[in-house]
Amino acid sequence: MKFLLITAVTFLMIGVMACKPKTETITVQTEAGVFACPMKCEGDKTYPAAGKCPVCGMDLKPVSAEAASKEFEMRIVSTPETIEAGKPVKLAFTPGVKGDKATQVPLDEVHEHKIHVIVVSKDLGWYDHIHPEYQADGTYTIEENFPAGGEYIIFSDYNPSGGGNKVSRSTWTVNGPPKKAEVFASQKLSDLADGYTVVLKPEAGKFLTNNMNHMGVEVTEKGKPVTNFETVMGAKGHLVIISGDGQRYLHVHPDEVDGKLDLHTQFEQPGMYRAFFQFQTNGKLHTSYFTLDVKEGKEGELETPEGHHTHEEGGHEHKDGDHKH
How far out from the chain centre does Cα 208 lie? Predict the structure, then answer.
């Protein structure tokens, strides 16, 4: 069975007001002259020769000495500077090297795009997955429309060429009437998306830290199983998981076997998580929303289902404080 792609990444704690965005980045340095999974499925683990990632099956990529020694950052500028709810705003993303604004940073394409941008409201009740397009001036731009006033979090997921996967996190303030904050205090594993009923089914019946959590995704329409999943962004589906405090981020891609979708991932901390699953049928992208209640577990408490391999290392979380202006 193929393995799933899990992006468990370094976290950037940034505070950004809409009028004066600022970027700070912490990167995981990988040993130079070796190979690593471009999505860092096994964190900092490296290999002495080319091959396949044992977790996601992607080709291992060489990590250059030059790229590995750099600290990357994602600079984001909005036009207009002050963002108003319900009005379009252009967001310009510029990958760069910290302390060196003159050098342009080339990006590798991963899952059909150079940058995957996840935008969520602070309460995690609103979600968007967008892909800025490259421009001649070296920026990647896209138009976004924030539905209500309040705070939003932007995760920028990208791969500097030869440098491995990076994720930056920034917070933005949007002017305008706020919506009532949603509270997600209990687990919710079923959702209705465009007429499809989508259910997450943890094989152990629960989610635990310190274990590989396997789950199936069951999609039905009018009670009948849906199997005509189309490839979107290089996969049959995308599951983004964000911790309730908005600090931890996971990007998981399913394996498809006989029309069924299967995922697995690890959680570093217990608590409530929001999960957003996207899949495509008949040329249309659908998004479903879930809430996961992750409990503290002991290593090996969940047995690995037959046909799966354990994930040797979990994702990293690097904190440097969340600065806000």
Answer: 20
What would the two tokens of residue 197 be? 């009923």
Provide the token pair at 200.
């997450």
State the amino acid at position 248 in one-letter form: R
- Report the candidate in 301, 25, 13 with the shortest Cα–Cα distance to residue 163: 25
Q: Dig out the tokens for 87 from the structure.
A: 């009005």
Residue type, 6: I
The label of the residue with tokens 């199936």 reads: 216
Give the Cα separation of 18 and 144 in Å (integer).
13
- Residue 50: CB atoms within 10 A of its CB come to 10
Average the pLDDT over 124-131 and give the result.
98
Hey, which bits of 195-236 come out as E strands?
196-202, 207-208, 213-221, 224-225
Instruction: Give the pLDDT confidence of 149-202 residue by residue, as tens digits.
Output: 999 999 999 989 877 788 999 999 999 999 999 999 999 999 999 999 999 999
Question: What six digits make up the tokens of 162?
Answer: 């030869």
Place of tokens 């750099």: 70
Query: How many other C-beta atoms can be found within 10 angstroms of the C-beta atom of residue 66?
Result: 10
Here the tokens at position 210 are 């310190």
β-strands 284-295, 207-208 pairing = parallel
Tens-digit pLDDT profile for residues 67-87: 656 788 999 999 999 999 999
68 three-class SS: helix
| Closest of 313, 213, 317, 215 to residue 265, by C-alpha | 213
